Amino acid sequence: MHNIVNTERFARAGQLVTASLLLSLLAACASSPMPAPVVDRTSGAGVAGVAPLEPAPPGYYRVKRGDTLYRIALENGQSYRDVAGWNQLTNPNQIEVGQLLRVAPPGADVNAGTGVATMPVTPGAVQGQPIDQARPVLVPLPAASASSAPGATAAPAAPASAAAADSGIKLAWPVTGQLIGHFDEKGNKGIDIAGKKGDPVQAADDGRVIHVGPLRGYGNLVIIKHNDTYLTAYGHNDKVLVTEQATVRKGQKIAEMGNSDTDRVKLHFEVRKNGKPVDPMRYLPPQ
């Protein structure tokens, strides 16, 4: 009988000791500070002894959180393939925050005002086959005028704006339709034109295709480089009819209108000068 009583006393004592230890641990946790927030060490902000990253020199770009190589190339007026090549990137999807990327051709004169330099557009061939064909056929550029190119449509006969005259490019309207979105430097980086699915999208001027493919916010996107300074971008296409590096003529059908990555059928059209968006209406003739 005494043994049973002693056993029960020892069990109760053990329970009291365990409870006391738990209370002590809880009290210690309550008095300890919360874990420190995660710090992005690439910026050096809030980290003792870590200096902030230096600004990118002209002709280079410092990668920020959320960047993609495709968007970096667009913002600097370059082909993403060229940027990948200049930086020896085997996978364009693998870039790191804080990484310094060359966005101007090696040895090129960099514009001190924009930090951007571009490669000249070189002659190539017109690509007249859909991109989903296994072996697209390239044909030499004809010597005839732009209006005789396959799929070409004559540009509106209207005087070009002063900005277009100064730039050396004379753009034609890429589609015919209602203007539903105006340029806003802080918001809309181009204009939006309504239309029907399948309506032809035409090159606004002669140039070389430097991008074909999806880009967030643009849907199926085509970018054409016209000269060392200017490029045009055509977003939300349904079907694209050209491939990268193909040379196209003004008025040539390059795509069909759609609603990729947007809520209605429309063309988003941008003009970029040294990679920076400018108002397309300054370069287009009156409708």
Task: Please bin the fraction of helical residues.
Answer: 10-25%
| CATH H level, superfamily name of the largest domain | Glucose Permease (Domain IIA)
Overall outline: globular
Q: Helix/strand-derived class?
A: alpha+beta
Domain tally: 2
Q: Count the strands?
A: 14
Largest sheet features: 10 strands, antiparallel
Return the CATH architecture of the largest domain: Distorted Sandwich
> CATH class of the largest domain, anyone?
Mainly Beta
Q: Helix-strand pattern, N to C?
A: HEHHEEEHEEEEEEEEEE
Query: What ranges have pLDDT less than 50 throughout 5 or more consecutive residues?
Result: 21-48, 112-159
CATH topology of the largest domain: the name is: Glucose Permease (Domain IIA)
Radius of gyration (Å)? 30 Å
What do you see in this structure?
The protein has helices at 2-31, 69-75, 80-86, 162-167; strands spanning 60-62, 100-102, 125-127, 138-140, 179-181, 191-194, 200-202, 207-215, 219-225, 230-240, 247-248, 253-257, 266-273, 276-278. It is α+β, with helices and mostly antiparallel strands. It has 2 domains: 45-119, LysM domain (Membrane-bound Lytic Murein Transglycosylase D, Chain A); 156-282, Distorted Sandwich (Glucose Permease (Domain IIA)). A hairpin with a 4-residue loop joins strand 9 (219-225) and strand 10 (230-240). The longest helix has 30 residues, at 2-31.
